[in-house]
Amino acid sequence: MDTDQLLAFQRVVREGSFSRAARTLDIGQPAVSARIQALEAQLGGALLTRGRRLGLTPLGASFLPFVERALETLDEGLKSARMSQSRHRGRVTFAALGSLAGGLLGPSLVEFVSEHPDVECGMRSGDHEFVLQLLADGVVELGIIAWPCRDAAARELTSLFVLRERVVLVAQPRHPIARRKSVSRAELVELGRPFLQLRWWQSHHPELARLADESNSALEIPMQAARHLALQGAAVGFFPELLIGEDIERGALAEVAVRDLPPIERHSALVRRSKHGALSADARAWIECLRRQAMKRGLLPRAKPRRSRPASG
User: Fold this and answer.
1) Distance CA 167, CA 230 (A)
2) Which has more pLDDT, 201 or 30?
3) How far apart are alpha carbons 103 and 227 in whole angstroms?
4) Terminal C-alpha separation, the chain
5) Is the pTM of this model over 0.90?
6) Is 208 in contact with 285 (CB distance < 8 Å)?
7) Domains of the chain
8) pLDDT of 175 over the 90 cut
């Protein structure tokens, strides 16, 4: 099994045909077919269904994610090796929870790129499990994940700092919920239909899971789709503040207090793999950019100024 075979399989799946895959690889179609057949022989079964429409067999569907990860990890390794032989200052690789990408990752990148224009940045975003996998595979050096992480010990992760973010109930301003200054849990269950049950942590928050059960109208959908429903006035839900902060500022969404519900926070942490060596100067600079932007947004407590000691004598 070699890289050319894996790449041929990935391209055939992505392009939907052997001929288009061959064009992207700049080889002949028979060569693509031969690589796929060799791969299937080693795996002991067909990866693709041949017919009027190309598709994945169960074996192909189960194998594809590992092919994608292997090729992605190899690509990152090649880039790192090439840069170590060049005069390039360095490269920072990082992944963050998708709900933090706009409010934290974006502003941090603006600051970092302006101060370090010659440093290449490899940035990703996705859910908690996606970021963990990138860290485990060595595709990224640093990542922001939900915290505390049950898998932290197994994956040998070290927390560099922890972010604390409010989780708030929001609704479109014309929604019946938003027309009240505050609501009770019972009023939220009655008026907040459908209720968005969002997984912005590793599992559903117990208080919000109870509200979802009581409402009998809960929708469990991806965060961005849920935000769209809230903006259209079609649903209400609890969102991490950073994700919908700009929507609140421009009046597209309104925050609604729930009187008999304790404050809810989401904790996330900037982490790195413990067994990696010392951080590069570029990585340390990126961490400081993240720290400053997190402090501006109230995700980190500001350091208290030290009191000067009176001069002795």
Assistant:
1) 15
2) 30
3) 14
4) 78
5) no
6) no
7) 3-82 (1.10.10.10), 90-157+267-296 (3.40.190.10), 165-265 (3.40.190.290)
8) yes
* pLDDT, position 299: 94
Angstrom distance (rounded) from CA 238 to CA 265: 11
Stretch 181-186: mean pLDDT: 91
Token representation of residue 148: 């505390």
Among residues 219, 259, 249, the alpha carbon closest in space to that of 236 is found at 219
Burial 216-228 (b: 16+ CB within 10 A, else e): eebbebebeebbe
Highest mean pLDDT among 141-145, 156-160, 299-303, 305-309: 141-145
Would you give the distance in Å from CA 297 to the centre of its chain? 19
The chain-wide mean pLDDT, for the chain, equals 87
Higher pLDDT, 274 or 80: 274
- Among 172, 156, 166, smallest CA distance to 263 is for 166
Size of the chain, expressed as the number of residues it contains: 313
CA-CA distance, 256 to 169, in Å (whole number)? 5
Q: Please check the confidence at residue 308 and state whether its pLDDT lies above 60.
A: no
Percentage of residues in the chain having pLDDT higher than 90: 50
Task: Give the C-alpha separation, 135 to 141, whole Å.
Answer: 6
Contacts of 6 (CB under 8 A, 6+ apart): 39, 67, 70, 71
DSSP strands (E only) in the chain: 48-49, 55-56, 91-97, 120-126, 142-146, 157-171, 182-183, 195-196, 218-219, 236-240, 254-258, 264-273
pLDDT of residue 301: 74
